[in-house]
Amino acid sequence: MSERYDCTDPSGRADGVPAAAGAIRRGEVIVLPTDTVYGIGCDAFDATAVASVLAAKGRGRDMPPPVLIPTARTAQGLATQVPDYAQRLMEKFWPGPLTVVLQAQTSLHWDLGDTNGTVALRVPDHDLTLELLGDVGPMAVTSANTTGDPAARTVDEALAMLGETVSVYLDAGPAGDGEASTIIDCTGEAPVTLRIGAIAQDDIDAALLPPDDVVTEGESQDDSEEQPADDAQDEAQDEAQDEAQDEAKAAGGDALGEWHDVAEDDAEVAVPGTGAVGTDADAIDAAVTDADAIDAAGTDASGSDPGGDASTVDPADALGEWHDVSSDERRTDGVTPTQ
């Protein structure tokens, strides 16, 4: 029997968050509010629970769920080889509607599906889910809907589609505006925009500029000696990004996993390997998966040291007390972990 908690009421929230945390620790599935739509999720390190989330949606392992995290520092425990440009994006837009695809730490014992060694991460902007994530740690979360149906904007909509497959429903009222997150592939030398969502490309480009290149109001822009060098640097950066875009398309998205959100029927999504942008959710559903309609918790990234070098951070230190990152000791529930 599913439990439903009215988290718009302080007493309901006080009961609901611990109930959801308990369900997650038991390997069960919950529905939680996000800053876009409602999400269905579980412990990211419980392979059986992740399989239950995919089954509830009617999806296979070829559409792995993204992972919600409470702080930018947590990303350093889950991902490796995090480029400087990814750090700048995380610092600028987290918490918020930005999903970054990174190379996953190989020492982690988890199985999100056929990820090809990558993981899609986001620190979303919702205080209730932030509270929950701070308690239970990283969660595998995807939009609370069955495949081919619109993402749920209310708990009633989620309940109608998911029913008793979910143990706990946290009702925080209507979800956000439903606009998908912007997804950036950060696995290469240059960032590749997989989908434009709530964050415009111009804002992404501005955040990627080195600090010295940002012109403030009243600052002179006609430095005749430095201008040629700046132009050459910008041109080289553009060429690198274009090459990375071409390589991603040529690879058919295989190296990235299927990190996409199809929650909105009319959302334009770039389909990996095709170079096409589609608006038919059923057609896109066959090629892509939810990455933003899911996003849930937020925190202040300024205190999370997003600019650090992830390669020097011990995953156990970054993840804290949530999980043992030893692949020898973590149980698999009979499922082979994805490295």
Please provide a brief summary of the model.
The chain has 339 residues and is of the alpha/beta class. It is 31% helix and 15% strand.
Question: What do these coordinates show?
Answer:
- The strands form 2 sheets. Strands 1, 2, 3, 4, 5, 6, 7, 8, 9, 10 and 11 form an 11-stranded mixed β-sheet that branches. This protein has a two-stranded antiparallel sheet with strand order 12-13.
- The chain has 10 helices and 13 strands.
- The protein has 339 residues and is α/β, with parallel strands linked by helices.
- Strand 12 (269-271) and strand 13 form a beta hairpin.
- Helix 1 packs parallel to helix 5 (127-136).
- The model is unreliable at 220-226, 247-312 and 321-339 (pLDDT under 50).
- It is globular and about 60 Å long.
- The protein has a single domain (3-302), classed as DHBP synthase (Alpha-Beta Complex), CATH 3.90.870.10.
- It has helices at residues 10-25, 47-57, 72-78, 84-93, 127-136, 155-162, 201-208, 227-250, 281-285, 315-319; strands spanning 3-6, 30-32, 39-43, 67-68, 79-80, 98-104, 118-122, 139-143, 168-171, 182-185, 192-195, 269-271, 276-278.
> Which of globular, elongated, flat, extended, rod-shaped describes the shape?
globular
Number of helices: 10
Helix content: 25-40%
Alpha-beta content class: alpha/beta
How large is the share of residues in beta strands? Answer: 15-25%
Kindly report the average pLDDT value.
75
Strands, helices and their partners?
Elements lengths: L2 E4 L3 H16 L4 E3 L6 E5 L3 H11 L9 E2 L3 H7 E2 L3 H10 L4 E7 L13 E5 L4 H10 L2 E5 L11 H8 L5 E4 L10 E4 L6 E4 L5 H8 L18 H24 L18 E3 L4 E3 L2 H5 L29 H5 L20
Helix pairs in contact: 1-5
